[in-house]
Amino acid sequence: MEATTAARTDSSITHPTTPPLTARQEARRRRILHATARLAGRGGFEAVQMRAVAESSQVALGTLYRYFPSKIHLLVAVMRDQLEHLHGTLRKRPPSGDTAAERVASTLMRAFRALQREPQLADAMVRALTFADRGVRAEVDEVSRRTTAIVLDAMGREHPTPAQLRAVRVIEHTWHSALITWLSGRASIAQVRADIETACRLIDLTPADD
Protein backbone atom coordinates (compact mmCIF):
# COMPACT_ATOMS: atom_id res chain seq x y z
CA MET A 1 0.00 0.00 0.00
CA GLU A 2 2.58 2.53 -1.08
CA ALA A 3 1.96 6.15 -2.02
CA THR A 4 3.86 9.41 -2.23
CA THR A 5 4.89 11.17 0.96
CA ALA A 6 2.31 13.90 0.41
CA ALA A 7 -0.48 11.43 -0.22
CA ARG A 8 0.39 9.23 2.74
CA THR A 9 0.54 12.07 5.25
CA ASP A 10 -2.67 13.69 4.06
CA SER A 11 -5.53 12.66 6.35
CA SER A 12 -8.16 13.91 3.89
CA ILE A 13 -10.63 11.20 3.02
CA THR A 14 -11.83 12.74 -0.25
CA HIS A 15 -10.16 11.63 -3.47
CA PRO A 16 -8.94 14.76 -5.28
CA THR A 17 -10.83 13.98 -8.52
CA THR A 18 -14.11 13.05 -6.82
CA PRO A 19 -16.70 15.82 -6.36
CA PRO A 20 -18.14 16.00 -2.84
CA LEU A 21 -21.36 14.11 -2.23
CA THR A 22 -24.57 15.89 -1.38
CA ALA A 23 -26.06 15.27 2.07
CA ARG A 24 -28.59 12.88 0.53
CA GLN A 25 -25.93 10.99 -1.41
CA GLU A 26 -23.71 10.71 1.66
CA ALA A 27 -26.63 9.36 3.71
CA ARG A 28 -27.28 6.77 1.00
CA ARG A 29 -23.61 5.83 0.88
CA ARG A 30 -23.52 5.34 4.65
CA ARG A 31 -26.62 3.11 4.51
CA ILE A 32 -24.86 0.99 1.92
CA LEU A 33 -21.69 0.69 4.02
CA HIS A 34 -23.64 -0.13 7.19
CA ALA A 35 -25.63 -2.81 5.35
CA THR A 36 -22.41 -4.29 3.98
CA ALA A 37 -20.82 -4.38 7.44
CA ARG A 38 -23.91 -6.08 8.91
CA LEU A 39 -23.97 -8.75 6.21
CA ALA A 40 -20.23 -9.40 6.50
CA GLY A 41 -20.43 -9.48 10.30
CA ARG A 42 -23.08 -12.20 10.15
CA GLY A 43 -21.83 -14.31 7.28
CA GLY A 44 -18.36 -13.21 6.23
CA PHE A 45 -17.09 -12.49 2.74
CA GLU A 46 -19.52 -14.80 0.94
CA ALA A 47 -22.56 -13.17 2.57
CA VAL A 48 -21.80 -9.84 0.88
CA GLN A 49 -23.75 -10.10 -2.36
CA MET A 50 -24.62 -6.97 -4.29
CA ARG A 51 -28.35 -7.73 -4.47
CA ALA A 52 -28.49 -8.46 -0.72
CA VAL A 53 -26.66 -5.19 0.02
CA ALA A 54 -29.06 -3.25 -2.21
CA GLU A 55 -32.10 -4.78 -0.50
CA SER A 56 -30.71 -4.28 3.00
CA SER A 57 -29.77 -0.64 2.35
CA GLN A 58 -33.02 0.06 0.44
CA VAL A 59 -31.36 1.32 -2.72
CA ALA A 60 -31.83 0.17 -6.30
CA LEU A 61 -29.28 -2.35 -7.53
CA GLY A 62 -28.24 0.00 -10.34
CA THR A 63 -27.72 2.80 -7.83
CA LEU A 64 -25.53 0.54 -5.70
CA TYR A 65 -23.31 -0.25 -8.69
CA ARG A 66 -22.90 3.46 -9.39
CA TYR A 67 -21.53 3.94 -5.89
CA PHE A 68 -19.55 0.71 -5.69
CA PRO A 69 -18.77 -1.34 -8.83
CA SER A 70 -18.14 -4.60 -6.92
CA LYS A 71 -18.20 -6.26 -3.50
CA ILE A 72 -14.45 -5.72 -3.30
CA HIS A 73 -14.99 -1.97 -3.64
CA LEU A 74 -17.68 -2.22 -0.97
CA LEU A 75 -15.60 -4.09 1.59
CA VAL A 76 -12.50 -1.97 1.08
CA ALA A 77 -14.69 1.10 1.62
CA VAL A 78 -16.02 -0.49 4.82
CA MET A 79 -12.43 -1.01 5.96
CA ARG A 80 -11.68 2.65 5.38
CA ASP A 81 -14.85 3.57 7.25
CA GLN A 82 -13.81 1.40 10.20
CA LEU A 83 -10.35 3.01 10.25
CA GLU A 84 -11.90 6.47 10.15
CA HIS A 85 -14.00 5.63 13.21
CA LEU A 86 -10.92 4.24 14.98
CA HIS A 87 -8.94 7.37 14.12
CA GLY A 88 -11.63 9.54 15.69
CA THR A 89 -11.62 7.42 18.83
CA LEU A 90 -7.83 7.58 19.08
CA ARG A 91 -7.86 11.37 18.77
CA LYS A 92 -10.24 11.52 21.73
CA ARG A 93 -8.26 8.95 23.74
CA PRO A 94 -4.64 9.01 22.51
CA PRO A 95 -2.51 5.91 23.14
CA SER A 96 -0.21 5.83 26.16
CA GLY A 97 3.48 5.03 26.05
CA ASP A 98 6.84 6.64 26.78
CA THR A 99 8.17 6.09 23.26
CA ALA A 100 6.74 6.42 19.77
CA ALA A 101 7.17 2.66 19.29
CA GLU A 102 5.10 1.91 22.39
CA ARG A 103 2.35 4.30 21.33
CA VAL A 104 2.15 2.88 17.81
CA ALA A 105 2.10 -0.71 19.11
CA SER A 106 -0.67 0.22 21.55
CA THR A 107 -2.63 1.87 18.73
CA LEU A 108 -2.36 -1.11 16.39
CA MET A 109 -3.34 -3.53 19.14
CA ARG A 110 -6.43 -1.41 19.83
CA ALA A 111 -7.25 -1.67 16.15
CA PHE A 112 -6.67 -5.41 16.28
CA ARG A 113 -8.95 -5.83 19.29
CA ALA A 114 -11.69 -3.88 17.49
CA LEU A 115 -11.42 -6.28 14.55
CA GLN A 116 -11.23 -9.25 16.92
CA ARG A 117 -14.72 -8.44 18.22
CA GLU A 118 -16.16 -9.10 14.75
CA PRO A 119 -13.94 -11.77 13.19
CA GLN A 120 -16.18 -12.48 10.19
CA LEU A 121 -16.27 -8.80 9.25
CA ALA A 122 -12.50 -8.58 9.76
CA ASP A 123 -11.95 -11.63 7.55
CA ALA A 124 -14.19 -10.17 4.81
CA MET A 125 -12.37 -6.84 4.81
CA VAL A 126 -8.91 -8.42 4.80
CA ARG A 127 -9.92 -10.74 1.96
CA ALA A 128 -11.14 -7.77 -0.03
CA LEU A 129 -7.83 -5.95 0.46
CA THR A 130 -5.98 -9.10 -0.57
CA PHE A 131 -8.09 -9.65 -3.69
CA ALA A 132 -8.16 -5.99 -4.75
CA ASP A 133 -6.73 -5.35 -8.20
CA ARG A 134 -5.78 -2.14 -10.03
CA GLY A 135 -9.45 -1.26 -10.44
CA VAL A 136 -9.76 -0.77 -6.68
CA ARG A 137 -6.52 1.19 -6.35
CA ALA A 138 -8.16 4.47 -5.30
CA GLU A 139 -10.05 2.78 -2.47
CA VAL A 140 -7.00 0.81 -1.32
CA ASP A 141 -4.94 4.02 -1.36
CA GLU A 142 -7.52 5.63 0.93
CA VAL A 143 -7.16 2.72 3.39
CA SER A 144 -3.39 3.14 3.22
CA ARG A 145 -3.55 6.89 3.80
CA ARG A 146 -5.85 6.46 6.77
CA THR A 147 -3.66 3.74 8.29
CA THR A 148 -0.57 5.89 7.83
CA ALA A 149 -2.29 8.90 9.40
CA ILE A 150 -3.23 6.79 12.44
CA VAL A 151 0.35 5.58 12.88
CA LEU A 152 1.85 9.05 12.40
CA ASP A 153 -0.55 10.53 14.95
CA ALA A 154 0.55 7.89 17.45
CA MET A 155 4.18 8.73 16.67
CA GLY A 156 3.50 12.43 17.10
CA ARG A 157 4.99 13.16 13.67
CA GLU A 158 3.07 15.54 11.43
CA HIS A 159 5.96 15.81 8.96
CA PRO A 160 7.78 12.46 8.87
CA THR A 161 11.10 11.95 7.14
CA PRO A 162 11.40 9.50 4.22
CA ALA A 163 13.16 7.05 6.57
CA GLN A 164 10.29 7.24 9.05
CA LEU A 165 7.76 6.64 6.26
CA ARG A 166 9.72 3.56 5.22
CA ALA A 167 9.53 2.29 8.80
CA VAL A 168 5.79 2.99 8.88
CA ARG A 169 5.36 1.04 5.65
CA VAL A 170 7.09 -2.00 7.15
CA ILE A 171 4.91 -1.71 10.27
CA GLU A 172 1.75 -1.56 8.15
CA HIS A 173 2.81 -4.64 6.20
CA THR A 174 3.50 -6.48 9.45
CA TRP A 175 0.11 -5.52 10.88
CA HIS A 176 -1.68 -6.69 7.75
CA SER A 177 0.25 -9.97 7.71
CA ALA A 178 -0.45 -10.51 11.42
CA LEU A 179 -4.17 -10.07 10.78
CA ILE A 180 -4.08 -12.67 8.01
CA THR A 181 -2.19 -15.24 10.08
CA TRP A 182 -4.51 -14.71 13.07
CA LEU A 183 -7.67 -14.95 10.96
CA SER A 184 -6.41 -18.17 9.39
CA GLY A 185 -5.73 -19.66 12.83
CA ARG A 186 -1.96 -19.76 12.32
CA ALA A 187 -1.07 -17.20 15.00
CA SER A 188 -2.21 -16.51 18.54
CA ILE A 189 -3.03 -13.07 19.87
CA ALA A 190 0.24 -13.20 21.82
CA GLN A 191 2.16 -13.85 18.59
CA VAL A 192 0.34 -10.97 16.87
CA ARG A 193 1.30 -8.64 19.71
CA ALA A 194 4.94 -9.80 19.64
CA ASP A 195 5.20 -9.28 15.87
CA ILE A 196 3.63 -5.82 16.02
CA GLU A 197 5.81 -4.72 18.93
CA THR A 198 8.93 -6.01 17.16
CA ALA A 199 8.09 -4.12 13.96
CA CYS A 200 7.27 -0.94 15.90
CA ARG A 201 10.79 -0.88 17.37
CA LEU A 202 11.92 0.25 13.92
CA ILE A 203 10.51 3.66 14.79
CA ASP A 204 12.92 4.19 17.69
CA LEU A 205 15.80 2.94 15.53
CA THR A 206 15.01 5.36 12.70
CA PRO A 207 16.74 8.75 12.84
CA ALA A 208 14.43 11.74 13.16
CA ASP A 209 16.44 13.58 10.51
CA ASP A 210 17.06 12.06 7.07
Notes on the structure:
It contains ten helices and no strands. It is globular. The protein is mostly helical. It is 72% helix and 0% strand. Helix 6 (100-116) packs across helix 8.
Give short descriptive properties of this protein:
single chain, 210 residues, mainly alpha, 10 helices, 72% helix, globular
Short summary of the structure?
The chain is 72% helix and 0% strand.
Number of helices: 10
Low-confidence stretches: 1-16
* Proportion in β-strands: under 5%
Rg (CA only): 17 Å
Oligomer: single chain
Strands, total number: 0
Which structural class fits the helix and strand makeup?
A: mainly alpha
Distance between the termini: 22 Å
**Average pLDDT value?**
89
Outline = globular
Largest sheet: none
The secondary-structure element order is: HHHHHHHHHH
What share of the residues lie within helices?
over 70%
Write the layout of secondary structure elements.
Layout: H1 5-9, H2 23-43, H3 50-57, H4 61-67, H5 71-92, H6 100-116, H7 119-131, H8 137-155, H9 162-183, H10 189-205
Helix pairs in contact: 2-3, 2-5, 2-7, 3-4, 5-7, 5-8, 6-8, 6-10, 7-9, 9-10
Region (Disordered): 1-25
Keywords: DNA-binding
InterPro entries: Homeodomain-like_sf, HTH-type_TetR-like_transc_reg, HTH_TetR, KstR_C
